[in-house]
Design a protein that fits this description.
The protein is mainly alpha-helical. The chain contains four helices and no strands.
Length: 85
């Protein structure tokens, strides 16, 4: 049986920025993945997959907005590179 192919994303760098930002702001807020997942109304494994820079995973805007609201940040802060570029 062939192995399933990992998803390929043309904009992998943007997904990595989102992953790093979610993890950064989560830690800044003092939340564990489990706490943030509960506040954002998603599962902890799903949040963990969104924070992974090695296996990009897409999410809906609704999920992105829920995460931003739970972290008390503007949604754009999860999209821009942390370096401020």
């Amino acid at each position: 049986m062939p192995r399933s192919k990992k998803p390929e994303f043309e904009n992998v760098d943007f997904y990595q920025d989102i992953a790093l930002n979610i993890a950064y702001y989560r830690r800044l807020a003092g939340y564990t993945q489990a706490v943030l997942a509960e506040k954002a109304q998603i599962t902890q494994p799903y949040l963990g997959s969104l924070e992974s820079i090695h296996n990009p995973r897409h999410c809906s805007l609704e999920v992105l907005f829920n995460i931003a609201r739970a972290l008390n940040v503007h949604p754009y802060q999860l999209l821009k590179p942390l370096s401020g570029d």
